[in-house]
Protein 1
Amino acid sequence: MRFGEMTKCSPTTIFPLPAPHPGFCSSGPGLRRRDLSALAMKRVLHITVFCLNYFYLGRFPSQEELGRRPSANQLECFARLRSLLVVCGADGGAYPTVPGRSGPELGAAIFQLERFLEGSHELNQSYVQHKSRRFAENKGLFPEEKYPQ
């Protein structure tokens, strides 16, 4: 099936979501700041959609599922996700501590996730080339003796 062709599914079905921005132009040092920001937002939306599809399907979405033409409901979903990403990504300030009682634990988990993503070379490849890799917590990153919380 080619990109953009319809598959048989209900017009009110949201998941799996098709790719919101199929294919990206190269982003080189020649892009203006505004263009680079717009491209980054498209990529974040694309990654968010892929992650939501993975959670919904329990597997990686197929090219056929990603290549469908979005329905009106899916376009509304993209618009809502874009607005959430704009709101959540607007504050560039640093937070001295993570709020709440479980803040340090959440901060440590996010730090672990960042280190895992930085070390996963497979995540820099396309969807179909992805090889599964299990997440393993690095106990030495936050020793329990030093960080009992």
Protein 2
Amino acid sequence: MGTKKIILNLDDVGLLNCINAAAMDLLRETPISSVSVMVPGPWTPGILKSIRSLERPVDIGAHLCLTSEWPSVRMRPVLGESVPSLLDKDGYLDLGADGRSGEWDLDEVGREFRAQIALLEKWGIEPTHLDAHMVFYFWRPELLDVLVDVAVEKELPLLIHGPKYIEQCARLGAMCPVYGNLTNYIFPPGNREEAYKDLLKLFPDDGVGVLALHASLNHPELAAAMGEEGARRIEEYDLFMEPGIFERLGVDVARPGDLWAHELGKGES
């Protein structure tokens, strides 16, 4: 198996402290150097401070949120009541994109995206990339158009999954990977390493691909928030903390800056 250049991006950072702790271990101990933070997440300011303390560059992107699907850890939009179509009856972001996404006002969606990016910038972070929490464009394709508008405006790469969505982004002038896949999130319990080896066969040998990693420490906070579903995040953490795992998988770990270079030929951003 040949080596493939892939952005391994730590997802959902800022949602739980145990997710943040896993991210910091992986940033300290492995070649992984890319995270996407949930700006409305309760633990986001803390993880940003921790990342700044590292003696290595880390790419920090905005994991743009339109939903808050964990009943015990709810998030509100940055713009609050000024984006009423995004609110549930309790004033939080929706529990699921598939139920009410058709009711979201696209102008409000764009304003909320920009507000989440602006808040990240206010905290002193110039984002290196954007991506979509819960891949909301799977449920309503028009949301990808709004996301692309914001990315092009900000001149930022989009970490997108699925060939047809990547093709749509490219047609609309956005920077995006040549391939992205989320199958790893739903790997069944068991031999995660072999499952990754099979998945990586789908990635092209040329160009930059992207995988979102969902890692967490084994902690009561995780069980309280996500129940049995948290087990796959523990397995993810354990796998990528193993010595030699990147060599065994044949992965050359890239950064979103490499994606910028690949798409525009400008060198690293």
